[in-house]
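User: Can you help me understand a structure? I only have the sequence.
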Amino acid sequence: MTLREKPGDGAPVTGLTLRPLRRSDADDWLALRARNARWLDRWEATTPEDLGGDRRPGRTRWQRAGRPPTFAEYVAALTRAANDGSTLPFAIELHGELVGQLTVSSITYGSLCSASIGYWVSEHVAGRGVVPTAVAMATDHCFFELGLHRIEVNIRPENAPSLRVVEKLGLRDEGVRVAYLHIQGRWCDHRTFALTAEEVPDGLLARWRRAHQG
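Assistant: Let's start by predicting it. Here is the structure, written out as tokens:
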């Protein structure tokens, strides 16, 4: 599944595409992460099992071995999650260049109809509207194509660049979740920002475009 930003009056950014992450992205993805290590690593999610091998039932083979997955294993895991409908993993491309990643995760239907969005982007395109536009595109897809009701984004309180993303998009601050996610070897607080479909009847991308024009 591929989502493309359609050019138009007030478009915050042009040439933006969200498309599936592929095994063939390995070289570009690994090089991008290496160049942005200081920019990204402090926000990198971990699990307690990353500290050593974990042979409990249900663990992946790299968790059992106490090692990170290879890129191919990582893409295969995301593809399986996409196939079962729980995740939408996207590569972020700007004018054909891989510049980051956005993942819609924890997709739940029934009485909840909700999902979470996480993202990272290369420092060299930060502040240019790439991430807000990507989040808006993914949110509209979740609301209008998947029929979800609520989207949330969880952010470390000290992650100023990411906080600016949700501020630009006008997501509602729902407060702090204590020790919510395991980040770089410890449990960390996160602030939760959310939006429901009723708040953006014509779409989050349309609202973001209007805000950008203003």
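Now, to help you interpret it: The two ends are 32 Å apart (CA to CA). Residues 53-62 have pLDDT under 50 and may be disordered. Let me know which part you'd like to focus on.
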